[in-house]
């Protein structure tokens, strides 16, 4: 009997909403004592149990807010079973209380919890006699009006009737009242069944002090439905789809209306029909609606349901729902059903002609022709969109074809330049298919293939150097007029028998000349590997080959000359200026470095020497540090003055080259951390700074 209805999902998956125990067994006592706890029920909605409400199937019991079941008065017999119904905004559940040893005096579960209202509530023998009160909704004035009466055959003298429940002393309050003396029940206003269909009231008798003598006894007030609500289509818009060519009787969609009246009466018994169909061709009755279920089905033959022959593939139906089982007195509501006739791929694409022509200049790329097709299917679907394939005539993959998404045309393109001299004509076989497969009974025919004839136009092409680039290796400084090579260029236009002339295009240093007839390249100046026009020992020049066409065409060739080094550059030293204090204890003057523009082995190791000493007794000394650096030092302190020391450096070339450079040494006065070189006309660099610079240069080599 117990059942849980979740109003919202539980936040905690470990929590199960409802009574934690569904069935309880209670031994029938001699008497249930008023306000004495019988058992505790544990109910949880997994949301904090916000204001739980309990209902007990017997009016003689209640459940407190803490879950405790107590009797409302001393009572001996309550039947074999009690039911407790608990509810919060988030969950509801029911628990069964089995009275072991009790007598069966209760009604069914449906009777207890208002699932059926066709008979009075079974009751124990008592003096208060009540029957359900039936009141039609929408009654008009005057109010109040009597609607029923409660009878108490053993009513004590001066006792009074009291009526309680929703609609009396609970919201909505004041709808019903009872004559405390006669037991006559009256209604004070118009009732609406669609707001509240059943009122559950309780009647009891009290003494003059208000103490209950008998009861409470349940009193049901049932509101009788009237046909005051039209059917409403609440789930729109209603859009259905049916494939073209569908068999007769194919279900398209279902239309369902809602009627707020009593579903157990004809007031909410609906019948459906089609009021209007737009357009009304090829038949005014393309569809039928099941009057009871609301299913819309096709009623025309598959041949009439052909999207390509229909005036419009969209139909609009005005659907009417009528209550009272469709009788004329019933109320009606309408809605529009839109039905789309969907396309299927029952038409293959066809080329508009069997053969297409195209011309293209040799060497050109891009679209050369658009192939047109016709397809009767829906342009918004894959049943219309075309896919093209080259099935023959494209062994070199020089052509590609793609679909224009706007026009559905096949755009045939040249992607690899064509050569007139190799082939002046090309023939391609193209097929077209749809993106979607055809239906089983339709196939691609001869019209789905086409031939494209392509004519290649001859263009005067420029001569081509071979090889390109051209490469030679020579020593620098070779004599002027030396022949480097003879270039070779050929004309691709072999059928035109043209002559070729040569010229220099780019010669940055002006070192070269070319014979215009035979293409011999010689030198007009000395080649210098150390020239700024030479990059990594390679000199680059460009030449032109010009044919005799009209207009003439030109080809460009590249010459790369690798220059081998010769020892034609003397080394040089750095730095050329140094400072030293006249009272320095460290007599080191400067570390010299040497460099050479040539390549190894025409560079280091370098030999450092003092060419001559102008001062008697030879006060200068030079010592080798490594292959590229040497240390200049004093043998004794000198007076404050400027000294020019000739340094001779020699490279390792064969034959070697030597360079003599004056090293200017400034002997300065150094007192109190101040360096004074004014008297010597010296620069303001300190000796430690120069030594640091020299050591840095040494470390970088």
Automatic annotation (TrEMBL):
<protein>
    <recommendedName>
        <fullName>Cadherin-13</fullName>
    </recommendedName>
</protein>
<keyword id="KW-0106">Calcium</keyword>
<dbReference type="InterPro" id="IPR015919">
    <property type="entry name" value="Cadherin-like_sf"/>
</dbReference>
<dbReference type="GO" id="GO:0005886">
    <property type="term" value="C:plasma membrane"/>
</dbReference>
<dbReference type="InterPro" id="IPR039808">
    <property type="entry name" value="Cadherin"/>
</dbReference>
<comment type="subunit">
    <text>By contrast to classical cadherins, homodimerization in trans is not mediated by cadherin EC1 domain strand-swapping, but instead through a homophilic adhesive interface which joins two elongated EC1-EC2 domains through a region near their Ca2+-binding sites to form a tetrahedral, X-like shape.</text>
</comment>
<dbReference type="Pfam" id="PF08758">
    <property type="entry name" value="Cadherin_pro"/>
</dbReference>
<keyword id="KW-0336">GPI-anchor</keyword>
<keyword id="KW-0449">Lipoprotein</keyword>
<dbReference type="GO" id="GO:0005509">
    <property type="term" value="F:calcium ion binding"/>
</dbReference>
<keyword id="KW-0479">Metal-binding</keyword>
<dbReference type="GO" id="GO:0005737">
    <property type="term" value="C:cytoplasm"/>
</dbReference>
<keyword id="KW-0165">Cleavage on pair of basic residues</keyword>
<feature type="domain" description="Cadherin">
    <location>
        <begin position="135"/>
        <end position="233"/>
    </location>
</feature>
<keyword id="KW-1003">Cell membrane</keyword>
<dbReference type="Pfam" id="PF00028">
    <property type="entry name" value="Cadherin"/>
</dbReference>
<keyword id="KW-0130">Cell adhesion</keyword>
<keyword id="KW-0677">Repeat</keyword>
<comment type="function">
    <text>Cadherins are calcium-dependent cell adhesion proteins. They preferentially interact with themselves in a homophilic manner in connecting cells; cadherins may thus contribute to the sorting of heterogeneous cell types. May act as a negative regulator of neural cell growth.</text>
</comment>
<dbReference type="InterPro" id="IPR014868">
    <property type="entry name" value="Cadherin_pro_dom"/>
</dbReference>
<dbReference type="GO" id="GO:0007156">
    <property type="term" value="P:homophilic cell adhesion via plasma membrane adhesion molecules"/>
</dbReference>
<dbReference type="InterPro" id="IPR002126">
    <property type="entry name" value="Cadherin-like_dom"/>
</dbReference>
<keyword id="KW-0325">Glycoprotein</keyword>
<feature type="domain" description="Cadherin">
    <location>
        <begin position="466"/>
        <end position="573"/>
    </location>
</feature>
<feature type="domain" description="Cadherin">
    <location>
        <begin position="234"/>
        <end position="351"/>
    </location>
</feature>
<keyword id="KW-0472">Membrane</keyword>
<feature type="domain" description="Cadherin">
    <location>
        <begin position="572"/>
        <end position="690"/>
    </location>
</feature>
<keyword id="KW-0963">Cytoplasm</keyword>
<dbReference type="GO" id="GO:0098552">
    <property type="term" value="C:side of membrane"/>
</dbReference>
<keyword id="KW-0732">Signal</keyword>
<dbReference type="InterPro" id="IPR020894">
    <property type="entry name" value="Cadherin_CS"/>
</dbReference>
<feature type="domain" description="Cadherin">
    <location>
        <begin position="352"/>
        <end position="465"/>
    </location>
</feature>
């Amino acid at each position: 009997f117990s059942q849980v209805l979740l109003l919202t999902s539980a936040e905690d998956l470990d929590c199960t909403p409802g009574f934690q125990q569904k069935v309880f067994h209670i031994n029938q006592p001699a008497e249930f004592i008023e306000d004495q706890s019988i058992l505790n029920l544990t109910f949880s909605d997994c949301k904090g149990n916000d204001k739980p409400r309990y209902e007990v199937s017997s009016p003689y019991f209640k459940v407190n807010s803490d879950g405790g079941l107590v009797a409302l008065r001393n009572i001996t017999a309550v039947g074999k079973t009690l039911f407790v119904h608990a509810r919060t905004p988030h969950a509801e559940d029911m628990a069964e209380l089995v009275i072991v040893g009790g007598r069966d005096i209760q009604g069914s579960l449906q009777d207890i919890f208002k699932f059926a209202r066709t008979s009075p509530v079974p009751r124990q023998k008592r003096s208060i006699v009540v029957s359900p009160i039936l009141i039609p909704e929408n009654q008009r004035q005057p109010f109040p009006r009597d609607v029923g009466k409660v009878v108490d055959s053993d009513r004590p003298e001066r006792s009074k009737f009291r009526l309680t429940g929703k609609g009396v002393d609970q919201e909505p309050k004041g709808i019903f009242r009872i004559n405390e003396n006669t037991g006559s029940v009256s209604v004070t206003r118009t009732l609406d069944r669609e707001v509240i269909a059943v009122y559950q009231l309780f009647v009891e008798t009290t003494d003059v002090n208000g103490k209950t003598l008998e009861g409470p006894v349940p009193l049901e007030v049932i509101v009788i439905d009237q046909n005051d609500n039209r059917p409403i289509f609440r789930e729109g818009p209603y859009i259905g789809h049916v494939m073209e060519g569908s068999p007769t009787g194919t279900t398209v969609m279902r239309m369902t209306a809602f009627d707020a009246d009593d579903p157990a009466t004809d007031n909410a018994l609906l019948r459906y029909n089609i009021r209007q169909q737009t357009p009304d061709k090829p038949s005014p009755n393309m569809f039928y609606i099941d009057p009871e279920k609301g299913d819309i089905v096709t009623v025309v033959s598959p041949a009439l349901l052909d999207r390509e022959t229909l005036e419009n593939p969209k139909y609009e139906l005005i659907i009417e729902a009528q209550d009272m089982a469709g009788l004329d007195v019933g109320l009606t509501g309408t809605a529009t059903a839109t039905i789309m006739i969907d396309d299927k791929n029952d038409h293959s694409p066809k080329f508009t002609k069997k053969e297409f022509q195209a011309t293209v200049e040799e060497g050109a790329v891009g679209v050369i022709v658009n192939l047109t097709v016709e397809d009767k299917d829906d342009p918004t679907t894959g049943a219309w969109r075309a896919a093209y394939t080259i099935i023959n005539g494209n062994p070199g993959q020089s052509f590609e074809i793609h679909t224009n998404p706007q026009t559905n045309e096949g755009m045939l393109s040249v992607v690899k330049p064509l050569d007139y001299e190799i082939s002046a004509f090309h023939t391609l076989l193209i097929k077209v298919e749809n993106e979607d497969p055809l239906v089983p009974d339709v196939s691609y025919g001869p019209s789905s293939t086409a031939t494209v004839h392509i004519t290649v136009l001859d263009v005067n092409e420029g001569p081509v150097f071979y090889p390109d680039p051209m490469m030679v290796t020579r020593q620098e400084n070779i004599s002027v007029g030396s022949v480097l090579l003879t270039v070779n260029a050929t004309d691709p236009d072999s059928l035109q028998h043209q002559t070729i002339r040569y010229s220099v295009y780019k010669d940055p240093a002006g070192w070269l000349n070319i014979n215009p007839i035979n293409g011999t390249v010689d030198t007009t100046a000395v080649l210098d590997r150390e020239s700024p026009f030479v990059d990594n020992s390679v000199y680059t020049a460009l030449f032109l080959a010009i044919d005799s066409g009209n207009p003439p065409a030109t080809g460009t060739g590249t010459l790369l000359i690798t220059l081998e080094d010769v020892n034609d550059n003397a080394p040089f030293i750095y730095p050329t200026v140094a400072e030293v204090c006249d009272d320095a204890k460290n007599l080191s003057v400067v570390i010299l470095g040497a460099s050479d523009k040539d390549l190894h082995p025409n560079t280091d190791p370098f030999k450092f020497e003092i060419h001559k000493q102008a001062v008697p007794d030879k006060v200068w000394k030079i010592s080798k540090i490594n292959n590229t650096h040497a240390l200049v030092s004093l043998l004794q302190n000198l007076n404050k003055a400027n000294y020019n020391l000739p340094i001779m450096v020699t490279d390792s070339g064969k034959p070697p080259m030597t360079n003599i450079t004056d090293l200017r040494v400034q002997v300065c006065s150094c007192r109190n951390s101040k360096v004074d070189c004014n008297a010597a006309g010296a620069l303001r660099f300190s000796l430690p700074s120069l030594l640091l610079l020299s050591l840095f240069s040494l470390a970088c080599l």
